[in-house]
Amino acid sequence: MLDKTFDVAIIGAGPGGSAAAYYLAQRGLAVALLDKADFPRDKTCGDGLTPRAVSVLRDMGLLEQLLQVGHRTPRLEIVAPLGYSVDSDIPKVGDWPEFTLVVPRLILDDLLLHKAIGAGAVFQGGTRVSKVATSAAGVTVHGTRKGGVVEVKARVAIVATGASPTLLMEMGILKHKPAMMIASRAYFEDMRGLKDEVYLTFEGVPLPGYGWVFPTSETSANIGAGLVRRSWTSRWRKETSSQVFQKFIASPTIKAMLDGGHQVGPIKGYPLRMDFAQSPTYGERTLLVGEAAGLVNPLTGEGIDYALESGRLAAEHLTALFAANDLSQARLAEYDTILRERFQRLFVFCDRVRAICLNPLLLNPLVAVANYRTDLKLRLIYAVLGLHGAPLESAAQPAVEIEV
Questions:
Q1: Angstrom distance (rounded) from CA 213 to CA 222
Q2: Given its phi and psi angles, is residue 396 left (phi above 0), alpha (psi -120 to 50 degrees) or beta?
Q3: pLDDT tens by residue, 116-161
């Protein structure tokens, strides 16, 4: 029931919100988890799980289930606009897995939610949150459900609402709408030209943008393309994400991969926030996790890994604050320092590489030279997979510092 005061109210039951709910409830805190959807529900996404994401899912005890329903891929290929490419096995970094997984969000998010509920979190779907009022005593979450009014009280809130800025702007945490990437994806089956690798390419898409092919089996894949809209390019670049996608799948390389294949289901578009390097991560009595804090890789659009990890970090930080009985703004603000220490250098580096992606004259030689420069090759691979910030003491790969 939601008629009591909770320790933490979490808005959004995607990967970040459910991970935070699981870790908080596991530590004995009273958690209310709210989402506008009833589960299971689909979520338009690339479905890719990097080693960073797989590591958190393993810690949550979900890896064996996910290996049964997902597709494990051991390699990565990065392709420049003119076709220059770098490919590699997924590097061994600390105790992180040496593979990626592709798991449809319909399955992943439902497993995560039930893991949180199993740990003791109280879930209420079909709840549209319109306001989070804060005071010295805590927060009151206001919303509606089935035509009725919802009011949930808690000592602190976590916002995990993804790309939508509406609630954060109403709370005054965001002062203006952030710039977004727009992306579209569709599923394909019976492909004869598919490689067993994560395929990320800047070929066949307008820059700064990218395309991907994430295998869901030996003959099927999640295929998509994204475009970063800049204010100074929007005047003359009018493509929709669906148009970018159609051009991408018509490019010679992707057509070859699609040999014999056919599309399953519709093309679906979605926005992505990737402004973490300049984004707020907390407010009064409130922490932000995942895409609500702009935690989406600026190069690849990958955000599940950062959602999971920031959800765990938020839970760890709040657990410590509850133990100290100190939910002051100064202590809550320490969460921002934790995130910056973990992710800031990576995101600044990715932002700078994305700036290079505006210019094929720079991006093409960057990828070409990476085939002869092991340090540069590893920097690119680490940036794409979000491996910076992992334990780097592994003997299997030299530690790579990302210089910014």
A1: 6
A2: alpha
A3: 999 999 999 999 999 999 998 999 999 999 989 999 999 999 999 9
Residues forming beta bridges with residue 100, ordered by sequence position: 73
d(Cα 32, Cα 6) in Å, to the nearest integer? Answer: 7
- Residue 204 token pair: 């066949």
Tell me the β-bridge partners of 215.
221
Name, in order, each residue with C-beta under 8 angstroms of 366's C-beta and a sequence gap of 6 or more: 80, 353, 356, 376, 380
Measured CA to CA in angstroms, residue 337 lies from 80, 147, 281, 297, 317 at distances of: 35, 40, 10, 19, 11
DSSP state of 1: -
> In the numeric block, which tokens belong to residue 341?
């220490």
3-state secondary structure of 103: coil
**AA identity, residue 296:** V
Q: Which of 322, 291, 285, 323 is nearest to 153 (CA)?
A: 285
Dist CA 333 CA 312 (whole Å): 16
Distances in whole angstroms, Cα of residue 68 to Cα of each of 71, 101, 107, 216, 357: 8, 11, 11, 12, 37
Write out the E strands in 44-127.
48-49, 71-73, 75-79, 85-89, 100-102, 122-124
Strands 286-288 and 148-159: parallel
Q: Which helix (H) or strand (E) holds 346?
A: helix 345-357
Q: Indicate yes or no: pTM above 0.85.
A: yes
Q: What is the pLDDT of residues 77-93, one digit of tens each?
A: 999 888 888 899 998 88
CB 195 within 8 A of CB 73: no
